[in-house]
Amino acid sequence: MTIFDTAATVDIARTLLGATLRVGKTAGIIVETEAYLADDPASHSCNGRSRRNGSMFLSAGHAYVYRSYGVHWCFNVVTGPAGVGEAVLVRALKPVDGIATIAERRGIVWDGSDAFNIPAGGGAAMKALCSGPGKLCQALGITGDMDGSIIGPDSPVSITLPDRVTSDRAPAGILATERIGISKGKDRLYRFVPADGELRRWISRPK
DNA sequence: CCAGTGATTCTCT
DNA sequence: GAGAATCACTGGC
Known about the structure:
Layout: H1 3-6, H2 9-15, E1 20-23, E2 26-36, E3 63-68, E4 72-79, E5 86-97, H3 99-106, H4 124-127, H5 133-140, E6 157-160, E7 174-177, E8 191-194
Antiparallel strand pairs: 1-2, 1-6, 2-5, 2-8, 3-4, 4-5, 7-8
Helix pairs in contact: 3-5
The structure holds a DNA duplex (13 and 13 nucleotides).
């Protein structure tokens, strides 16, 4: 039993801010999420199960990975019980581990310096590594192979939640905004980003 | 701002 | 089945 089973999808989207998403030797801190609900016109699940969205109806803690615009992969954490069809889209990361590998996958020149020595303020190139749902999948090597797989410490894809009490990683304030790139369901403020602080630097779009 | 991109889904025959 | 519409995006102006 994890938070993915017990909390509402919108709450999970908020809780995931500050969590570490790891795939192999690459990892980043989640700084931007969006919730997609069962009764939500913007959700892939709103018209029922199909070939593409099948894994969105798995039980909480599975990965839903789909191809967007025919070219990019997007990564979601399935929430709620099996058969419901709710998930949280991960939209941006602050890269923290395996940055040389990430830069290479993204086709961005990295000078080879210590991967943990992130330049103060993060340069434009750093920001471009994981500041979007398609970018972070390319950065971490997430592909359709991982669609329907279970997320966990013993799986290729893992998520470590921040310690709310002792960690300075979890953002103190969270801002809820309109979701990006949708045409329906714009009235729902289901996109979550840090309201301020260092993590906010890494989100895909200011507003 | 906007073009490229191609899989998936929708709407008819 | 075929043709059209629709995108939970990115990168380059």
